[in-house]
Batch of 2 targets.
Target 1
Amino acid sequence: MKKILAQAIKEWRLFRRDKLLILLAVLMPIVLMLLAGRTQSLRLRNVKLLVYDYDNTLLSRTYLETYGAALTFRLTAHEPGEPPERALSAGRGRAALIIPQNFERDALRGTGPIVQLMIDATDSNAATALGNMAEALNASFVRKSDLIPNVPARVRMDQRLWFNPGLSNPVYFGTGALGMMLIIFPALLGALATAKEYEMGTIIQAYASSLTAGQWVMGKGLVYVLIGIVEFFICFALGMFAFGYRIPTNPAVLLVATVLYLLAGVFFGMMMGNATGTQSAAIQGVQMGSFLLSLLLSGYLFAVQNIPPQIRWFSSLLPATHYVQIVRNSILRDVGWETSFRPLLALLGLALFFYMLNVLQMRKMQFKG
Amino acid sequence: MPAFLRRYLALATKEVQQLRRNRGLLIQLMIPPTIVLVIFGYALNPKVRHLRLGVVDESLTVESRDFIDSLTENVNFDVARRFVRARDAEDALNRLDLDLFLVIPSDFARSLHRGETAQAQVVIDAVDANTAQIAQGYLGRALLEYNTSRGADPVAEDRPRRMLLRAAHPAPPPGAPEVRPAYIYNPGLVTAWHYVTGVMSIIMFINASLVASALAVKEKETGTIEQLLMTPAQTGEMLLAKTSPVFVLMMVVMFVALGVGMLVFGVPVRGALWLFTVAGACAALAGIGIGVMVATVSKSQQQAQLLTFFVNPPITLFSGATSPIENMPETFQKISYFDPLRYLVTIVRGVTLKDAPWSALWPNLAALAGFAVVLFAISAWRFRKQ
């Protein structure tokens, strides 16, 4: 234990000497978390809709108003003489609504005019959403305009949205962002610190020292876990301001999970450092392995269950997947040990796994004394 | 041969030799991006399927079962469990065993027969706002379908059922206007196309900055920068020599990424490839510029890498590569104009997926080129100040 502490103190002294590093350690999570929580949103708003109204009657304008009133669309006039294909390929709008001639006459006659909506489907997700939205708006126009007699509904369904009744995206991404912040930085520091020993050649001292591999790894990791915990509190405080975090009834779950998560992250980083032996390679490894993969596969952006089953197992190897789940459980759903038990176990397993990998790598090289 | 060219060649040869010895760097430049591209193309799927639906059926009649069937006859909802009491379903939702549950009260069938509007309730776990919204949409459609296809007769036997996926909405009554969406550029609605083109752009830009900063600061760390500064070469030549191997490498990476996108995901290239190349070159230059700039302010590789890490995520998040820029708050949308990656993403998608006209792309290319020149100039100036 004493040896672990001594190693940790040595590590801390090294870290403290680098002022820029400390500044980054504090500043980075704050800025990044705000960005990660605020910029990512899958809900469409103010999508530019190019309008081609070839009818120009009262009814066609009423029809357009239905679209204009929805927050999703923003009606935009097209440039005179420009066909919709060209306007779309130039990116002047994301969709074009084409109302045919005789729209009003056909509707009143009961011939059913067909309105065309051309959607730029480069972002297929947004395109599908826009298509559905348009169909819903069309249905609501039909209902309101008394073109056909209304039939009373047979069944009415009340919907209750639990845990996030406003369907707020910042709440969802804000909680995920906490997980992102805590994986990037500690893992990075761990990777750099280990790789640096290799670059400077001081790793030989570790090989030759009386510390066991386990003690060395633990002592080195401990400092970065502590830094991570400080970051956790900073981020949490920020979250209370920016994303409406509440302190959960049972904060112990979240705290335990955070420590395990940080351990897993730091050990992962150190493993990368061990494996590559150079700082720039270690960084790349961490960037790919923890940042990019966590960003996209952990359920921060897209629900894990949408990932095809062939790759889904990969998500469960990412500590972030489990941690983001626990964060959302604790902060948004406010549930305790029982619900978060499985992800906690997974985190523990991953932390141990990465720890063992480190120890094995180190032990191979250590002198037997 | 002019003197400056000779000096440049000498320095560039040194850099190439150094790079060649650094096989790890070469491997890490080529392989991870390819793997990442493939994983993301396959894995990222915002479509929501197989939501776990809990059912609390207090009515237990033909009508209630029929209603449940009509909601679950497509791939969007799977009945995960049935409950006797609503309380148990609530617990299950809390334990994350369910995504949503449906409660049908005991008077459901009676109300239907009386011709009243029967009630049902749905509780959705809305933590994931996007999924919840989509689930709401599915439910609304299924309900509309149920209500309209039933007509006036509550016990109509033969109810035409449609796959909800295929026909999004029940056919509107005759005479009413109808809207027909036409999905252009990506009629198959392949999700991967969007992400692959986005991730491709991210990799190009970010790898350039990471590698450049690593290489530039290494010289400083090992102390050999003094020797470099003593050579007769000018700082500009030095910088050019230092970055041109990285630049060439990045161009190779870019085409590898495009090749993977085309082969694995069938991403089309509809526009002019030279535009893609020029844009990629500008982006690589801008990325290298950022990398060198970062390297000049930091003392160690550690600091440099951390700084690039600090700079890169915002660039990624603001670029619109992963989520549409229109969705961001107004101020963030304005900030995104200062993000060089934004222009690259627009051009890459414009060239590959859309065949966008030159008139739409040149402002983006100009902006990107502007960024490349400015960033590279600043980095040269900072480099000289050393």
Target 2
Amino acid sequence: MSGVRVLVGTHKGAFVLTADGKREKWDVSGPHFAGWDIYHLKGSPVDPNRIYASQTSGWFGQVIQRSDDGGKSWQPVDNKFQYDGVPGTHQWYDGTAHPWEFKRVWHLEPSLTDPDTVYAGVEDAALFKSTDGGKSWSELSGLRGHGTGPQWQPGAGGMCLHTIILDPADPERIYIAISAAGAFRSDDAGQSWKPINRGLHSQYIPNPTAEVGHCVHHVAMHPSRPGVLFMQKHWDVMRSDDAGDNWREVSGNLPTDFGFAIDVHAHEPETLYVVPIKSDSEHYPPEGKLRVYRSRSGGDEWEPLSKGLPQENCYVNVLRDAMAVDRLEDCGVYFGTTGGQVYASTNGGDEWAPIVRDLPAVLSVEVQTLA
Amino acid sequence: MASSANSDIALEVEEPVTQRSILDALEVRYPMLRGTIRDHQTLQRRAFLRFFACETDLSHEPPDAPLPDAVARGEEPFLIIGAIAGG
């Protein structure tokens, strides 16, 4: 029988939530790596038992953990993320030059074809790749070195590479996004890169339409249409129909177009989900009502989804990597909050229920659909 | 000579005995500690770890500064302590 495994990274450990295809009864395993920040966990699409996790702390730095049995047991594989050559400088908050310094891994993206190959997006922004199951890492330095790197500047959460999207139709094509540099694309498997930010408009930067400097919060893609991208920017929900070469705003009737998370329905490439957040200084839902907004038209027209979600006195946030969908027939949608709840909908967002209510602040949610 | 909160470790370190020479020797003995006490690339001490010896906080001393003679002679430990942070 089919089932799902929800991988939850939190401020104080990792949790693995499993259920059968009905998704009514959940088994909760964890905390794994108790007390550590787990920024992200993700399983290999080729071998679902292979899961990578980013474990980090201010005391002892970064550790990459790997499981080969679906999250039951883990082994540390490596912690060496060394920038290629002389790291150089990027801009600091005050505009001065600041040396590139590795801080942590924000996002792990396993290869679509090889369980031993995995990409890591790190802070200070760079992309690393391992081809030996995480035992060693090398930087794809063409990203930092393509020319605009010295102009990049950290967002409020740090200068993190938080989004990595691998094109299922073209193994040479990779998309990434950085706060607050913007989105970038490689068409040669990560060797060379170009900014893809035309059409973004950010009023808070000196040149609102600059080539780089936009605070992209997350990007999502449906695997059946890899040239169509959806973006939650700091403010504005955006869409591109040409692999990021041009973007247009599709915020439409959202109550606020600030937010972090965005995702696409598993079987309906024009159905999107976002969680509107009040503002950049007030990171909680407007009116204290937690609502997911769904568009069935690829943006512009949005409907609130609130059944089963708290509709008063709710002041949590939903972070950029904390929303995911499963691939079961009646697409499940999942998201985690900074209040420690993980909500699930088994009907595309019409109704929601918490799987767990009292975890540490949720940093990331990923879902594996199991055969 | 090196010490952690839970265990003492004896290391042979050539003169002059410094923070860097102790950490180099420690990481040779225990490779899994590379990148945990100090950053891989910059070799800077992690912010929440502190170095003490002879009742003195040496965390901000240059890594190549000689440590007290008592540490070099093995009479006093060089302490690597995880700071208590929070509030």
